[in-house]
Write a structure and sequence with these properties.
By secondary structure, the protein is an alpha/beta fold. The chain is built from eleven helices and seven strands. Helix 1 packs parallel to helix 3, helix 1 packs across helix 10 and helix 4 packs parallel to helix 6. The structure holds nicotinamide-adenine-dinucleotide. Nicotinamide-adenine-dinucleotide binds next to helix 1, strand 5 and helix 8.
């Protein structure tokens, strides 16, 4: 059921690479709920991905921007406001990348130049996005800015690597900027801590299939899909969540509060039995 809860809202959606991307689903759902927006991604990703297809189905413009470049971000916000005919109501930051993860370097043997690159892309770009919006006064009162996180910011997931640190900083930026933007303009800033999701970035993490299945077996509601996440983002962009800010919101089928579940215990005990046979 669609209620057009984003009717009249304008925004920017970062990070739709292909139809598996969480940002792709958010764009589709936001469009159905009546929002107008600009899609953006790094120039290289635009060449590799299929974003133009999404632009057609959602009737939106694509504006390239490297989210680590303040100059690109300024150009993006100015062009987006010109195209949409006014200030913005929502921004989705759905960006993540670790060079160490990509190149198979373990947490304890990082190439720190790569670490800095991943930090810039995955964490600092969130701050840059907010700072450019602030400088240009690009967000309307009661606007909503969202980043996407993962529970490795709080707990250890053995192969999530430097992305765990990047997510911890991302969540901290949401709190700190959330304070300043809330005081200045009643703008909300939050992160959603999403279940493992089968996307290009997700599947790049070593052992992803194990994380995915374990989380699904542990969570009473099972993993949240990209579609589920899109629905949650829509609600957080809407006026129904005006007083939610500076939060890291777990969207994970209950995973974050679980210790052990029957399914996980059965699988574990079966593994022990098999290895003893
Ligand atoms: N997939 C999961 O399991 C999962 C779980 C929790 C959180 N997340 C987070 O969700 C977000 C979206 O990831 P996804 O799973 O949809 O994967 P994805 O690979 O589809 O999206 C990542 C996006 O980041 C973009 N990007 C990379 N460098 C950029 C740059 N310099 N400038 C602009 N954009 C850049 C990529 O082009 C891509 O579109 C990420 O923050 C990710 O960490 C994913």
């Amino acid at each position: 059921m669609r209620n057009k809860i984003l009717e009249g809202k304008k925004g920017i959606i970062f990070g739709a690479l292909d139809d598996k991307s969480i940002a792709w689903k958010v764009a589709e759902h936001a469009h159905r709920e009546g929002a107008e927006f600009v899609l953006t991604n790094a120039p290289i990703a635009l060449r590799m991905g299929s974003i133009n297809k999404l632009a057609e189905t959602t009737n939106s413009k694509v504006i390239p921007a490297d989210a680590t470049s303040m100059e690109d971000l300024r150009g993006l916000y100015k062009e987006a406001m010109e195209h949409l005919g006014g200030k913005l109501d929502f921004v989705l930051h759905s960006i993540g990348m670790s060079v160490n993860v990509r190149k198979g370097k373990k947490y304890y043997e990082q190439n720190h130049e790569w670490t800095m690159k991943g930090y810039d892309v995955s964490s600092l770009s969130f701050h840059k996005t907010l700072q450019v919006a602030w400088e240009l006064d690009a967000l309307n009162e009661w606007g909503s800015v969202l980043g996407l996180s993962y529970i490795a910011a709080q707990r250890v997931f053995h192969s999530y690597n430097d992305m765990a640190d990047n997510k911890a900083v991302l969540e901290s930026i949401a709190r700190s900027f959330g304070y300043h933007y809330g005081k200045r303009k009643n703008v909300r800033v939050n992160t959603i801590s999403q279940s493992p999701t089968q996307t290009t970035a997700g599947s790049g993490v070593s052992g992803f299939d194990g994380f995915y299945r374990f989380a699904n077996d542990l969570s009473p509601l099972g993993n949240a899909s990209a579609e589920d996440c899109a629905n949650y983002c829509v609600v957080l962009f809407s006026d129904y969540t005006k007083k939610v800010t500076m939060q890291n919101l777990f969207h994970d089928g209950g995973f974050s509060f679980m210790g052990i579940s029957e399914d996980v215990m059965n699988t574990y005990m079966q593994g022990i039995k098999n290895s003893n046979d």
